[in-house]
Amino acid sequence: MRLGxxxxxxxxxxxxxxxxxxxEWDNDELxxxxxxxxxxxxxxxxxxxxxxxxxxSHQRQLVxxxxxxxxxxxxxxxxxxxxxxxxxxxxxHYSKRCQGCSLYQQCLPQAAEKVLRYQEAN
Length: 122
Ligand code: SF4
Hints:
The protein is an alpha+beta fold. 44% of the residues lie in helices and 20% in strands. It contains four helices and four strands, in the order ββαββααα. It has helices at 27-43, 67-86, 104-107, 109-121; strands at 2-6, 11-18, 49-54, 59-64. A four-stranded mixed beta sheet has the order 1-2-3-4. Helix 1 crosses helix 2. The longest helix has 20 residues, at 67-86. The radius of gyration is 18 Å and the shape is globular.
């Protein structure tokens, strides 16, 4: 993440850099919103926008830090905190999302599902 700064009063906004191009999921927006929430906590200033820069397509996408996005981001943060507290990782399920996931090589969801099916059958 980098910080953008604009104007005399230091209007701050997060800029998240991605190597690829925009995908069809909203995780990048959630990441920018989480960064905006951190900035708000650090500076005490309200952050209304952020950006995601996609290096492959050389495009910068505006992310409006709306109330809906804030609620979704906070719900995601809470869910992650529960995962961390319980230590229970949900089982991996292969879906369309997996095709662009940076954790695919570590997660191997198709192999994990095969192992699970094998264990259930035996
Ligand atoms: S590869 Fe694993 S972590 Fe990534 S989206 Fe698929 S199931 Fe989730």
